[in-house]
Amino acid sequence: MINLLKVRDAIALNGRTDARSLSHQFSAPLPMVEAMLKQLVIMGKLEEVDTSSCLSGGCKQCPETQKCDTKAYQLAVKK
Questions:
Q1: Alpha helices in the chain (DSSP H)
Q2: How far apart are CA 63 and CA 79, in angstroms?
Q3: 13 burial via Cβ count (<10 Å: 0-12, 13-18, 19+)
Q4: CA 19, CA 34: separation in Å to the nearest integer?
């Protein structure tokens, strides 16, 4: 059974990830994973990552440009 702690731990292990990857990893419905991610953001445990700037710098030539439109998440940086 998936829970908020497992989602947070999976993101901590991966560094950053998206809802679709977590949905596959836990065999859980995508809407449920998205709701859990949203709750973790509200709680201040996660933050959305700006994916508009590609790490490789080659998004204009990237054959998978739709992946750049997905929301990615990482652990929140404590200030």
A1: 4-14, 19-26, 30-42
A2: 37
A3: exposed
A4: 6
**Residue 28 clears pLDDT 60, i.e. is over it:** yes
Q: Is the pTM of this model over 0.85?
A: no
Q: Under a CB-based contact definition with an 8 Å cutoff, are residues 55 and 30 in contact?
A: no
Number of neighbouring beta carbons within 10 Å of residue 4: 14
* Long-range own/partner contacts, residues 62-70 (CB < 8 A, 24 or more apart): 70/18, 70/19, 70/20
Q: How far is CA 74 from CA 12, 21, 51, 60, 63, in A?
A: 7, 13, 12, 24, 25
The two tokens of residue 27 are 């065999």
CA torsion through residues 61, 53, 31, 16, sign: positive
Which pLDDT tens digit goes with each residue over 45-70?
999 987 665 555 545 545 555 555 67
